[in-house]
Specification:
By secondary structure, this protein is an all-alpha fold. It has one domain. The protein is built from ten helices and two strands; from the N terminus they run H-E-E-H-H-H-H-H-H-H-H-H. A two-stranded antiparallel ribbon has the order 1-2. Strand 1 and strand 2 form a beta hairpin. Helix 1 packs parallel to helix 5, helix 6 packs across helix 7 and helix 6 packs parallel to helix 10. The two termini are 25 Å apart.
Length: 255
């Protein structure tokens, strides 16, 4: 899984924030002055790192990794016509899915965490920011990203095991349904992963866009303990349904 073509593409995607952070660091070093400001307020390195976490990792990269890997756990085996070989092994079908899911968690963690750490050391020192003071927030970021990968992967593993075109459905859910329901008051947001994941973020939501302002107006952040509990329930239910789908579904391989 780690050396697949999908991982190469997503590895390049994760290299984007590192390249951006390195470019900012180089420009800052050559000009010998840090001048970034938003709405007239000067932005330091820790604040810039928080913005990158919100806009690049939380809102985009983590859902993308969950969609592309989670939906492919079973769908790729069907497309490659190799699922028959897996099902001939003397283990339950559901156990095969859980094993592939655990491999997904390990693989995506190996891809995401180095990218975040590099961005942290490149960006935080800008503007006089202290690496030591913000290091606890980095540990919270890493834990939050792992929780997000676990939750999104479980949901999309269920989608991939149950539906024929899981990638399209996953992209619509992650980048259509979730952003839409978070903008409006009501109970629909409580059936999204993003609603509970944003409560674990140690950084304030950036106020640099109209969408962010609207989300802040209607934002109802649940307590951290509540969010972790609901995310654990989502993961358990999604994996159970995914394993049941693999156990009961008859996979017909196209000629």
């Amino acid at each position: 899984m780690l050396w697949s073509r999908r991982s190469v593409f997503l590895g390049l995607l994760l290299g984007g924030p590192v390249v951006l952070a390195a470019a900012i660091r180089i420009v800052t070093a050559t000009t010998s002055l840090w001048r970034l400001s938003i709405n007239g307020a000067r932005v330091g390195g820790p604040a810039l790192f928080g913005m990158m976490m919100w806009l690049l990792y939380i809102r985009f990269i983590v859902p993308v990794l969950g969609v592309f890997y989670g939906t492919s756990l079973i769908a790729d085996e069907v497309d490659d016509k190799t699922i028959t070989y897996l099902f001939t092994r003397p283990v339950p079908r559901g156990a095969i899915l859980i094993g592939k899911y655990l491999a997904y968690v390990a693989c995506t963690t190996l891809l995401v965490l180095p990218s975040v750490i590099l961005v942290y050391f490149l960006v935080v020192p800008l503007g006089g920011g202290s690496i030591g003071e913000s290091f606890p927030a980095l540990l919270e970021d890493l834990g939050m990203l792992i929780v997000g990968l676990i939750a999104y992967g479980a949901v999309f593993a269920w989608v991939g095991a149950r539906l024929k075109r899981p990638l399209v459905v996953g992209l619509v859910f992650a980048f259509g349904w979730e952003p839409a329901v978070l903008l409006f008051p009501g109970y629909l947001k409580q059936v999204t992963v993003a609603y509970y994941l944003q409560a674990l973020v140690p950084h304030a939501m950036p106020q640099d866009s109209a969408v962010s302002i609207l989300m802040q107006m209607f934002r109802e952040v649940p307590p951290v303990a509540t969010s972790l509990t609901y995310l654990a329930v989502i993961v358990a239910i999604a994996l159970w349904f995914a394993a049941r789908a693999v156990e009961l579904k008859e996979y017909v391989l196209e000629q």
